[in-house]
Amino acid sequence: MFPRSYSLAKQLCHKCEYSCLVNFRVAKRNYVVYDKYFNLAKCLRRNLSSTKKPEPLEKPKKQAIIDVIAPKIREGEKDTLLKDIKEKSLEGVNVGGKKKEAPVAAEPIAKLKEKILHKQQGSAEDVAGVPTPQQKKRKRVDFTASSLERNFITPVRAMSDFLLKPSDLETLPKTKRRSPYEAEPPITVYWRRDVEAKALQVWGSRENLIKECIKRDIERKKYQQNIFTVKRRLRDYRREMGKSVEAADVESGLMGRSGKVVLMAVGINSMNFLFKLGAWILTGSHSMFSECIHSLADTINQLILAYGIHKSVQIADSNHPYGYTNMKYVASLISGVGIFCVGTGLSIYHGISGLIDPQPIEDLFWGYFVLGGSLISEGATWYVAFMSVRKGAQENNMSIKDYIFRGQDPSVNVVLLEDAAAVIGVTVAATCMGISSLLNSPIPDAMGSILVGGILGTVASFIIYTNVAALVGRSIPQENLDKINSELESDVMIRAIHDVKGIDMGNYLVRYKAEMDFDGRELTRAYLDKEDLNNLLEEVRKFENIDQLEEFMLKHGEAIVDMLGGEIDRIEMKLRKKHPEIRHCDLEIL
């Protein structure tokens, strides 16, 4: 068994440095192994019947426990430390028949432990000859911390959000950052924490700043009440100066191809309505009434289409950053609903009324005359709309059927379908009126009114279906999407693309979105092409600690990230050059 001093020393050193504890355990394990082998050798010596006397085994060399606990303490200090351990071990032993109660105090143990560790560290420094240098703890990223203080802020936002003047910003530290806009020089930015501190210094307190912001926001809203007047004046000024208003590439509002077709349809249908209204008053024909309602519905709907075309080329603003291109689909949808409710509903209702309460037919001469004129005018409008659709289909390399079913030009499609329904309706109405005159019965005329209402309902349902599909968000044709994808994948910086979307925005515009797997090695190689590798190598060789290495990595890492943004801008410009229909290009990094 080990002496009592061993137990006390074990208790003192149980929480010591790792090296001391390891040495203690190794010594204890070696002692146990030697003791087992020694006992085994004695048993074998008794049982062997050999004539040769075995050589006695050498007992393990005894080692002082103080050498096991603290092997690095100097010889002169071992006696003092061993004396302290023995004094501790005698506490609690019977002395003169009385047991001495002396629990081990925490404070002496801690002092003794500190003394042992201090001596070991001193010995290590003496052996090395120089003290161990202290490494600076590297700062790690804390993803839970708020990063607003580290954010940059532009001068415009500093003046709008914090109500500072340009003179207030002159004394603040600033830096240059890559511009978020393509082919633009770097922009000047400030640290957000510096701007906030300057704003509090100027306005006195955060409450005063908030009150002033609210006051200016009210003034801004009052100014926006006259925003349409301001835009109109600006448009007139640009026209006077010879500058054109920014619009879509193919369309130019009511003066474009679609706008001219719609305006011509408005004029013709309004005249047809007036003539048909007079013919119905003279004849009292149910079919003529249906045609009168049909022309009225067409006129109102095409006025709505004209407004949608005019609104669709309006310049994007802060409330509608992607513009108003979908207004053409909205106006076409309203037009389809109007045809269905007004044209279909009234025509069928008037036809059913004629079947329930038939009225004698009057002279239909003027009715035939007006229907003949309507057939010619509606046919002319339909022909103009058809030629516009044909030209648009050729420009987009599509068939006329696909062009109509996809609703590429919703305004012209509505005019085309409405006039087609008008031509068919005029033919049906004239046929039913002729049968009624031949049989001298109002029933065929009433049936003609119901048939015209069914034709209008079919056309209205198709218009509603195509425009709803466009407003929900319809993809561009797959072959066009494949061309854009192949152009993007062929770039040297891109390994793969995922989650690709191409949305038709109307007015022959496309919004393209893709997630890219960027090639980091090619990006780094492109960055190194702009640097002098020999200078970088000399800079690295001069590093003496990890702090210099960290500063080097942070500087070049930020430069590589800036270069990544520049490469994305380059790719977007290349896509827009090859595919001009792409108005908004959203490229994301995986």
Describe the structure concisely.
The chain is mostly helical and 590 residues long.
Q: Can you put this structure into words, describing what you see?
A:
Its main location: endoplasmic reticulum. There is one protein chain. The protein has 590 residues and is mostly helical. Helices cover 66% and strands 8% of the residues. It has a three-stranded antiparallel sheet with strand order 3-5-4. Strands 6-7-8 form a three-stranded mixed sheet, sandwiched between helices. A two-stranded antiparallel ribbon has the order 1-2. It is elongated and about 140 Å long. The chain starts with a helix and ends with a strand. About 6% of the residues have low confidence.
- Largest sheet, strands/sense/barrel: 3 strands, antiparallel
Helix content: 55-70%
Based on CA atoms alone, the radius of gyration comes out at 47 Å
SS strand fraction: 5-15%
Number of strands: 8
The global form is elongated
Order of helices and strands: HHHHEEHEHHEEHHHHHHHHHHHEEHHHE
Structural class: mainly alpha
Family: Belongs to the cation diffusion facilitator (CDF) transporter (TC 2.A.4) family. SLC30A subfamily.
Pfam families: Cation_efflux
Keywords: Antiport, Endoplasmic reticulum, Ion transport, Membrane, Mitochondrion, Nucleus, Transcription, Transcription regulation, Transmembrane, Transmembrane helix, Transport, Zinc, Zinc transport
Catalytic activity: Zn(2+)(in) + 2 H(+)(out) = Zn(2+)(out) + 2 H(+)(in)
